[in-house]
Design brief:
The protein is an alpha/beta fold. The chain folds into 2 domains: 155 residues, Leucine Aminopeptidase, subunit E, domain 1, CATH 3.40.220; 313 residues, Aminopeptidase (3-Layer(aba) Sandwich). The chain is built from 15 helices and 20 strands. Strands 7, 8, 9, 10, 11, 14, 15, 16 and 18 form a 9-stranded mixed beta sheet that branches. A 6-stranded mixed beta sheet has the order 1-6-5-2-4-3. A hairpin with an 8-residue loop joins strand 3 and strand 4. Helix 9 packs antiparallel against helix 11 and helix 13 packs across helix 15. The structure holds ligand BES, manganese (II) ion (MN) and zinc ion. The site of ligand BES has 15 residues, from helix 12.
């Protein structure tokens, strides 16, 4: 969607639809003139009770040539003192998906109501951009529902913020595309291509033989059952900062569970087990496009987890780069095996912090549903920063404890650790397992198993891959 910022009178702009955000209980106060030009139709609709201004309520009015825009869309923001940045984002999402559903292409946003709230219209635009997404790569029928253009009517200087938002949303869409892609077209090698498609970054791929030499036994054990070659991908973006931050993204392009095979019902969704890596790629894309000062090393231990005659078996013991041994209790707890070696590898760059993002546990959605990213870590200040970024972006994180007692849950009788600690505390024991590899390096673990995919349309997130983590981590780096 093209974004144009213009200081022009609402009634003078030709477009398919002009969006008028309205507050509950305040009628058309911000739009007396437009209401008059429209023969008081908006007021009539409101007094008839057909539109009240409740959050995300919509009402479309044809203007019949009374003003230049062909239609006016009233959208509710709720009560004045209850409007938040997120409510604006959601209203923007709702307005855009409603209009794109009608195949409307060219829209405009009046910012008067939003300015009267001392809030930024950029949030509304962000919601509209995020909602304007569909994954149609595998549909033979052409059906372009996307809105092509939005004109933001304002005299505010918004160019910089809009440019930033556009880059962040494009990156989230890039991540959504990768995650929505089926695993036959999204293999570890495809992730390499995605990494190589980024500009102004350097990409190094550690192939299986080199990974063996390096001793990445835990990571390699995950790939053993598949014919798809594993690819350990290292992507560097260097802004002006000297010390890097390592971003590790879980990159299991399909998780069947391996020999500890998953039930077939719903297994098709396990193509989204590389959502962490998609988030990392999205962050690197926007960071390099926006020439952010951050120095980021993205690490994607990519593999496919399948059962076969060569696959890892429960009871097998593997060794990580650090030399720590792991007893594989479940081949379905593969994410932590791959991520453990990636965290160890990340330490070679002496990063100021390691952040891993992973669809790590089903227990995460049991605890948090689909609303919240589980956060664990060993550095309170770092986690506080992540929390702030999450409040800004509404990609919300919530902390879980890593008390020492959890160590017992992953003690093995024959190796240093075991990869599964049973059902109780499953979200935390997965985090604790990774903590053993992070050691003294400041580290955060984000479990996005519950938030990377949505089965229902949300105001600005259509069904499917959500792109979670991209806006969160970009905000984290922006304010770092
Ligand atoms: N990729 C899954 C976690 C997952 C489940 C993500 C559902 C998204 C939706 C992970 O590899 C896994 O299978 N974890 C196991 C761990 C268990 C065997 C200790 C799980 O959560 O059941
Ligand atoms: Mn698994
Ligand atoms: Zn998995």
């Amino acid at each position: 969607m093209k974004i144009i910022i213009q200081n022009k009178k609402e009634t003078d702009l030709s477009c398919d639809a002009l969006i008028l955000p309205l507050l509950e209980g305040e009628g058309t106060t911000s739009y007396k003139d437009i209401n008059r030009s429209l023969n008081n139709i908006p007021d009539k609709i409101i007094s008839a009770g057909e539109f009240t201004g409740k959050p995300n309520e919509v009402c479309l009015v044809h203007t019949e040539g009374m003003i230049k825009p062909d239609r006016v869309l009233l959208i509710g923001l709720g009560k004045r003192n209850e409007v938040t940045v997120e409510k604006l984002r959601q209203a923007g999402g709702k307005a855009a998906s409603y209009l794109s559903g009608l195949k409307i292409k060219d829209i405009a946003l009046s910012t008067k109501t939003i300015s009267s709230l001392k809030l930024t219209p950029v949030a509304f635009v962000e919601g509209a951009l995020l909602a304007n997404y569909s994954f149609r790569k595998y549909k033979s029928e052409e059906n372009h529902k996307e809105i092509k253009k939005i004109t933001v009517l304002t005299n505010e200087k918004l160019d910089k913020q809009i440019k930033w938002t556009e880059a962040a949303v494009n990156a989230a869409h890039f991540a959504r595309d990768l995650v929505n892609s089926p695993s036959n077209d999204m293999t570890p090698s495809t992730l390499v291509k995605a990494a190589r498609s980024l500009k102004n970054v350097s990409v190094k791929v550690i192939e299986k033989s080199e990974a063996e030499r390096l001793g990445m036994g835990a990571y390699l054990s995950v790939a053993k059952g598949s014919n798809e070659p594993p690819k350990f991908i290292v992507i560097t973006y260097k802004g002006k900062n000297t010390t890097p931050v390592a971003l590790v993204g879980k990159a299991i392009t399909f998780d069947s569970g391996g020999i500890s095979i998953k039930p077939s019902e719903g297994m098709e969704k396990m193509k989204y087990d590389m959502a962490g890596s998609a988030a990392v790629l999205g962050v690197l894309k926007a960071a390099s496009e926006m020439k952010m000062p951050a120095h980021i090393i993205g690490i994607l231990p990519a593999a496919e987890n399948l059962p076969s005659g060569t696959a890892s078996k429960p009871g097998d013991v593997v060794k990580t780069i650090s030399g720590k041994t792991i007893e594989i209790i479940s081949t379905d707890a593969e994410g932590r095996l791959a991520v453990a070696d990636a965290i160890e590898y990340a330490k070679r760059f002496k990063p100021s912090a390691i952040i891993d993002i992973a669809t790590l546990t089903g227990a995460c959605s049991i605890a948090f549903g689909n609303e919240t990213v589980a956060m664990m870590g060993n550095d309170e200040a770092l986690m506080e920063k992540m929390k702030k970024a999450s409040e800004e972006t509404y990609e919300r994180v919530w902390p879980m404890p890593l008390f020492d007692e959890y160590k017992d849950y992953i003690k093995s009788d024959i190796a240093d650790l075991k990869n599964a600690g049973g059902r109780s505390g499953g979200l935390i024991t997965a985090g604790y397992f990774l903590k053993e590899f992070a050691g003294d390096t400041p580290w955060i673990h984000l479990d996005i198993a519950g938030t990377a995919w949505t089965d229902k349309d949300r105001p600005y997130i259509p069904k499917g891959a959500t792109g979670i983590g991209v806006r969160l981590l970009l905000e984290f780096f922006r304010t770092a």
